[in-house]
Amino acid sequence: MIRFSGYIISLVIVFWAATCESFILEGSPTSYAQFKTWNGSLSFEFQTNELNGLLFYTDDGGRFRYFFELKLVEGTLRLRYNLGEGSAFITVGRGLNDGEWHLVEIVRHVEKVSLRVDDEIKNRVTPGRDFAFENLSMNSFVYIGGLPARYKSKLSQLALTTVFFEPHFKGAIRKVIYSNDEASSRRQDMIAFHGIRNNGLDHCNYRDPCQHGGTCISTDSGAICDCKNVDYEGNFCDKEKSQSEATFRGVEFLSYDFKAFGGGEPITSLSDTVSLFFKTRQPHGMLFYTGDGDDFLSLSLRDGGIVLTVSLGSGSLERVVRPSRVRFDDNQWHKVLVHRKVREITDVTSFCHLSIAVDGVYTQRGSTAGTFSFLSSKELYVGGSDVNSGHLGIHSRVSFVGCLRKVRFLADSLSMDLIELASTGSKLVRPQGNFQFVCHEVEAADPITFTTKESFLALSRWDAPRGGRISFKIRTNEPNGVLMYNSGATAQGDFFAFELLAGHVYLLLNLGSGSVKVKATTRRVDDGHWHRIYLTRKSKSGRVIVDEYSVEFFTQGNSNQLDLEGPLYLGGIGTSPEGRTIPPELWSGKLQYGYVGCMRDLIVNDNAVDIALYAQKQDSGSIRPACHTSPPQCDSQPCLNGGFCTEGWNRYLCDCSRTNFTGSVCSKDATTLSFDGEQYMNIQIPEISRTQAEDIRLRFRTTRPSGLLLATTLEKSVNHLVVALESGRIKVILNLGDGNKLLHVGNRLNDDQWHTLQIIRRGHNLVVRVDSETLSGELVGHQMTLEFQDLHIGAYIPSGIPVYSPQSQTRDVPNFIGHMQKLLFNGDQFFEMARTGQLVNFQVTAKFGKKEEIVHHPVTFKSKNTFLGISQLKAYSTMNLYFQFKTLEPNGLILYNSGKEQDFIAIELVNGHLDYIFNLGDGPKKVRSNTRRTLNDNKWHAVTIGRQSLRQHTLMVDDMIATVTSVGSNVHLDLDGLLYLGGVRRSTYNNLPKLVQSKHGFEGCLASLDLNGEIVNPIADAIIPSTLVSDGCAGADTKCSNSACANKGVCVQLWNGYTCDCDMTSFTGPTCSDESIAYEFGSGSGIITFNHPLDRRPDTKTDLLALGFVTVSDNAILVRIYSGSSNDYLQLEILEGNIFAVYNLGTDDHPIGELSTRVDNGQYHVVRFTRSGPNSTIQLDDHNVVTKYPNGKQLAIFNSHSKIEIGAKKNMGSGRLEKPFHGIITGLVFNGDRLLDMASEGDPRVTVEGDVELLVSIPYDLGQVRPSDSQMHQPLSRFAHSGDDLVFSGAGSGCFDDEDNCGVIVVEPGDDLITPIFIPPTHKPRHPTPNPSSRVSQRPVEIRHSDETLCDDEEGCGEGSGIEGFVITNPPINYYIPEKGVSISQEPAPSASPVPPQLLPPSSTTSYWNVVNKGDAQVKAWNASTTWRPINYISTRNPPSVYQVPIPDIPKKDQGLQKPNKKPKSSADNTALVIGIIAGVLISIVLIALIVYKLRNRTDGAYKRNEGKDYRFEPVSNSPALLGGQQQANGALKPTEKAHRLPKKKDIKELKEWYV
C-alpha cells in the first residue's frame, strides 16, 4: 500500500512538471508543498482570493532560531525573518487577494533583505551576528502553503513556533525559482505535498455542505468543512461540540512563555481580538494578559466590573465597564469581546483603535496615537499568573475564581483557542495547577480553618428582620463549638446562633418572645467530611437543611421580627471590653467551646462572603487559609505524665483530669490548695451567671469522711448546686427552682488518695462521675437554668451567709479538711487562674502548695546572634503564654512578633530582669518582673503571661506577679508574620520598637514553651531553623578550671564554654599556650615606636602592661610611654639586673620593682605591671606581687598618651638610642593593645628602626633551656638590704647621662626596705655596698588597708598615708578590675589611707606570719594553707565569672606583733607560753572583728576627671590585688595622725618567728 501511494505521488509530481507550471493548494489544515533547502534569492508567483494564509516558511532547523516566514495578512504581504538579532518585518502590497497572479521575490545580500511584489519593492537592513543562511545540511525544507501535521508534536524543532498555527494558503502557486546548491537559481521541483489539487473544479460553488458557519474547502474528492472557528464539529459542522471550559479555584492558570520555550520568537500582531466567557462570584480576579515588558494587553475583574488596559510603549489606555446597578460577579455567564487594531499613518506614527463589549450590550471604545506598531505577545496568562512575574500589566494580583469558557486569542492571521489547546495537551499552552476542563460550581471564597477555641471572625450583622437566608459548609472532627452567633438589639433578648454539640448541629433563634432550639441533624457531622448547612426563615417559620436532612421550625410568641445588632461572629462568641452576656440557651458559648475546624461557602442573603479575606484582616494567626488535614497527632505521644490523648482537628487534646498535672500536655504541676477546716476560697462572679449546662471537674484528697467541696449561692434565690463528701461518698444537690435533685456516687473516698470528680449537665440531664464510677439522672420540672453569683470552695464564708442558701441542705456537713486540685468550672481553671494572678474578685485563706516546675522540650541557644522562626503567635483576643528559661547572660531578646501597623509583642531580658512589652494599637506598654534577684543566675525560671481581662495584663515570674493596664479602644493584638525566638535578624534590631532595648539575642536555654494552649517544640516546629540551636540544656560543654588556661591565663566562663584572657601572660591562643609575636633586639640597637593619632590620645586612670623577655643586659629600657600634653610618663626598665617600673602623673616619680630576682640571666621572664590611680603593682614570673602606695598629695590620671617606645629611649635632640635593650621581647600588651602584633601586621601607627628582627620561634633562654615553672628562689639582688636605703632607679626623672643635669637625693637614715622573702628563708642576708645614686624614702614603711580616693590632675589632694616602698602580698594570683560604675560599700574612717581594697572570694584559711629581722628592716611574710571558692559578684553589668586565688589580709598598724621576750625554757614556761598564745589569739580575733566592722561601714571616696577623654577597656582579671576592688582616689591623712614605724635595726637582735 505504501509503495502504491508513493507511486501515485510520483505520477502527480511528474504530471505537474510536465504539463503545467502551477499547482493549486486546497487550503485545508493539512495542505502544504515541500521543496528542497533554499540558498540565495527566491521567487514565485501566487494567485488567491483569501485574505490570510501562509505562503512560505523555512528555518535553520531550530538550531539558532534563524527563519524566514512570508504570509498574507488582510491581503497584504508580510515578511518576517531573523538572522541573529531578533525579528525584522517587511510589509508590501495591498489587496493581493484579488484573484490575479502576483510575482514575489526575496533577495538577500549580507545584512540587506529586499521584498518585491510585482513592481513594489522594500528593503530592510538588519544588523546581525551571522548573515549566512546557506547551511543546506542543517536548514529545513522549504514549505509553501503550510506545514506538515507532524510538527504538531515537534514544535521545539521550529525556530518560529507559532507558524504551525497560521492558516494554510488556499490558491495557486507557480514558478518557484531559487538556488539549492552552488549552481545558479533554477525552477525547483516539489518533493512532497499534501492537499495539491489535480483539477481546478470548485465544489463549494456548486454546493456548500458546511453548517453553522463552517468553512468550505474544495478538494479533488469534493467539498470538506473546516469547523475550527465554530462551536460545532463533524464532517459538516453539524454536531455541537463540548465547550472548551475550565474551572479556576484561585491557584490554577494557563500560560505560554516564548522566553522559556526554547528561546522561540513571540507572537507579533497589528490587530488583536480576545474573546471569552466567564462566571464567578468574586469581585476581583485576573482574566487575561499578554505582552512583553511595557507593551501589554490586560483584562481583569475589579470591584465587579471589567477593566481593559492596553499599553504599547507610549502610555497606557484603560477602559472600565461597570454599569450602574449591574455587577458581573453574580455567578452568571458573561461574554467579553476585545478588539485592538493599529493603523500605520506614517513610518513613525501609528493609530490604535480599541473597543470592549460585555454581553454585547455594555461597550467602551478608545484610541491613541504614538510611535508603536506591533504588539509582542511573548508571555500570556489566563486566570492568574506567576506571583514572581512582576508584570506591569497584571494589575490584579488576585487570581480568578470561577469558570472560563472559549478563551480565544486572534493575533492578525493567527487564531488560538487557549483552553482547547491546554486540554488537548498542546505543548504551546501549559496548564498550571490541578485543572478540571469542565465548569464546576466554585466556592464563594477559599476555605478557612479555626485552629483554636479562642479564634473567631467578626462580620457585619445579619440583616434579616423579616426573613433571610444563610448557607455555609463545615468540616471538623471535634464534637463541640459555636459555629455562628449574632446578639440582639432588644431587651427581650433577640439572638441567632448555630452551634455544634456532641457532634450535632443546633439552630438557636429568639425573636424576642422566646427562644427556639432546633436539632438539625439525625447523625453526627464531626466525621471530618464537608457538610452543608442551609437556613431560610420567613417571619416566624423557617427550615434548616443539613446535607439532605431537612427540619422545619416555628418560633414562640407573637414576635415575627429578628432585631440583631453588633457583629455576626463565626467560630465563637467574640469579645467586648464591657463584657458580653451569653444567652443561657447557647450551651457551647457558656461552656467556652469555640469551634475548631474548617468553614467555607458562606452566603448571606444570597451574597457571597469572602471569609478568607476577613480572616486575613482580623486574625491571620489563629485562623488560617485553606483546609488541610494532618496525620494523626497522638501517634507522637505528646501527652506527658499519664495524660490521655485524643485526636482533634489537626491537633491533639490531652486529658489530664486523672493526673496531678495540668497544661496542654500535662506538663505543669497542678496548683494544690490545702484546707484545715477553717480555711476556704470564695469566688465572686461580677454578674449573675445563668447557665443551662455545666462542666465541673475537681480532684480532692482527704482522710475525713465528710466535708464541703463546693457550692453555688445567689442572694434571695433558692437556686444552688452543692457538692460534698458525706460518709465517704459524693453527694450532689441541685435545685433549679423545682425542688432538689439528689445524687450519691462513690464509696470510701476518704482514703487519703486522689480522686477525680466530674459533673456534666446538659439541660435536664445530669451525669456525676467519680473515678470510673458513673451515675446519671434526669431533672424534673420546667426550670432548666442555674443562677449563682458566689462559688464557695471548702467552706462557706464565715459571715454573711445568704438568707436563701443551701445551708439547710448541708447543716451536718463540716468544712473540708484535705487537699484540692484542678477545679474546672465551665472552662475556667480557677485554682490556676488565682495562682497566676488572672482571677479577680476572690478571697482565699487556704494554702497554696509549692509547685515543681517541670522542664520539657528544652533547647539551647548557643549564640546571641541566632534565632528561630516559628508560626505566628495566636494571641488575637486572649493571652496565655508560658515558658521557662535559664541563662547566665543579663540581656537578650527572647521572643518577638511584629504585627499590623503598630501592634507587636516582645519579651526580653534587660539587666537580669524580664520585660514584657506589647502594643495593641494605642501605644506600647511595658511590665517588668518584680523578682528580688536578677534572673541570669543559671537557674530555671518560669514565666506566665496572661490577660485577666481585655485591658488587664499580667506577668508572673517565679510566683511574683506584675500587672499593667492598657488604655484605648483597641483590645485585639493584630500580629503578622513569624514569631521569632531567641532573637531576630541582625538588621532588625535597629528597627525594633523604641521600648525594646535588646541589641542582640538570647543565649541560654528555653523550655516548656506553651503558646495559648499550643505546645511548641522549637526545633521541630521551626520554619526558620538554626544550627546554633540544639536540643536539651546541658549548659556549657566545658567549664572553667584551674588548669583550663595555661601560663596563668584567666579563665572566663561563658554560657557555651569558656575563654582565656591572655593579656597578662605574654602568650596567646585559645588557652594562652601559643607563642606570641616576638622581636629580637640585636647588638646594633633598635627601637619600635607606636604613635597615637592626634585625635585619639586617651587619658587613663588605670594601666595594664605585660610582656615576656629574654636578655643578659643588666641596664636597659623595655618600654616607655609618653604623654602628649604633660610630663606624665611610664617606664619599664632593667636596672642593675633587676626589673623596675617608674611612673609620674604630674607630681613625683614613683618607682616600684622586684629586688629578689635578677632578670639578666638569659632566661625567659614575664613581668606584669598594673596601675590604678597613683597606686601600682608589679609581679615578675611567679614571685610575690609587689605593691606601692605613694604618700602625700597625688594625682590619678595619666594624661594624653602620645607615644610608646619599645627597646630603648630615643633622644629627641640627638636621635641617639639611650639604654637600648638587647634580647627578645614577646607578647607585649598595653591596655589591651598587642603592640608587637600590630608591628608585625604593618600597622601604620607602628615604626620599626634599627637592629630589630621578627622571630619565628622564641629561645626561652640563651642556652635554649626553658626555665622551671617556679622562679621563687632566684639569687637576691646585689643591692644592699641591711641598710636604711631604698633603691631608686632614677628612671623617673629621665636622667640617663650627664647632660640631663639631674640632682641627687640625699639619703636619710631610718628608712626601711621591704623585700619579699619566701617562707621558710633562713639564709643570712648579703650586705653589699649601697649604690650612691640610689634614692631613699623619706617616710617609714606602714602597712595599712583603706579605701582610696583618687583625684584628677586639676584638683588639689590631701596628703596620703605615707606608704612609700614595697609591700609583699601573697603568692601569684589572678585579679579582677571592675568596670567604671561598680559600687562596693565601704566603711567610713577618720582618714583614708590609699591601700586598695581587694575582692576576695570566701575562704577558709589557716595562716601564720613570720617576723624577719633583716638589717634595719622588719619584714612580715605570710604562709598559709587556704581553700576557697569563686566569688559571686553583684553588679548591674553581671561580669563573667573569674577564677581567682585568694589574697590574705595584711595586718593593720594596731595588729603588728611585738617580738616576745626571751625566757628560760621549762615546763611552766611552756605552759605559760601556751596560755599566752591562746590569749593572744583571742585578742587578735576580737581586734580583727572590730576592724572588719569598721571597714564595712566606710564611705566611698570621690574624684573628678574628664570622662570624655578616659581610656576605657574591658575588665581584665590579671590585675593586682589593689585593683580588685572599686576604683579609688587619693586619700588624705589628718595632720594629727602619724605613721606607725616598724622597729629599727638596733631594737632587733635576732630572727624570731611568731605564730598566730
TrEMBL record:
Residues 1321-1342, 1447-1467, 1514-1541 are annotated as: Disordered. Residues 22-204, 245-439, 446-627, 670-848, 857-1033, 1077-1252 form the Laminin G domain. The keyword Ribosomal protein does not apply. The chain crosses the membrane at residues 1472-1495. Keywords: Disulfide bond, EGF-like domain, Membrane, Signal, Transmembrane, Transmembrane helix. Residues 1-22 form the signal peptide. The keyword Glycoprotein does not apply. InterPro entries: ConA-like_dom_sf, EGF, Laminin_G, Neurexin-related_CASP. Residues 200-238, 630-667, 1036-1073 form the EGF-like domain. Residues 1516-1530 have a biased composition (Polar residues). PANTHER family: NEUREXIN 1, ISOFORM F, PIKACHURIN-LIKE PROTEIN. This is Neurexin-1-like. It comes from Limulus polyphemus.
